[in-house]
Design goal:
Elements (H helix, E strand, L loop, with lengths): L2 H10 L5 H12 L8 H10 L4 H34 L9 H6 L13 H10 L4 H26 L6
Helix pairs in contact: 2-3, 2-4, 3-7, 4-6, 4-7
Length: 159
């Protein structure tokens, strides 16, 4: 393994830099990269149970920031397509999402479709801050339910 990769892995190692690691993984997993952040949150909470609420809040912040990045990517893609085509490029298939507006971003927590939903919200030029607020609510609920559920199913065993 390359020295820089070892240094990066060491810096991101749990629990030494646990909250920073959770933030970064949550941010990256909210983009279109195929990555899940729940295992990192669960691992940190298993190693350090008093970090339950900080881990949930940091993961929510990172995942919401990643959703906001996806929103901006969607907006940028829309602007570029309109510029090159010279006309509106929205399809009828996106009209139903536009009908729900920023509230549709509550569903950004869903696997597979949640992250692209944030990009589509940007594509549709839905208002940024309401979308981010709904993303945060949905993502917070997901982390809270999933982490609490995993702790219930696999309680901490003398680590």
């Amino acid at each position: 393994m390359e020295p820089w990769m070892l240094a990066l892995a060491h810096w991101l190692a749990l629990p030494h830099n646990g909250l920073a690691t959770v933030f970064l993984i949550a941010l990256l997993s909210a983009t279109l990269l195929p990555l899940g952040s729940e295992p990192a949150v669960f691992a940190l909470v298993q190693i350090n149970p008093q970090l339950f609420w900080p881990a949930i809040l940091v993961a929510t912040a990172g995942n919401t920031a990643g959703g906001a990045i996806s929103w901006w990517m969607g907006l940028g893609t829309h602007e570029a397509v309109e510029h090159w085509r010279g006309k509106r490029s929205e399809g009828k298939a996106l009209a139903w999402l536009k009908r729900f507006g920023p509230r549709a971003c509550l569903l950004s927590w869903l696997p597979v479709v949640g992250d692209p939903l944030c990009a589509v919200a940007g594509w549709l030029r839905l208002p940024f801050w309401p979308c981010v607020a709904y993303m945060a609510v949905g993502k917070f609920a997901r982390y809270l339910v999933m982490t609490a559920g995993l702790i219930y199913l696999w309680p901490r065993v003398g680590i």
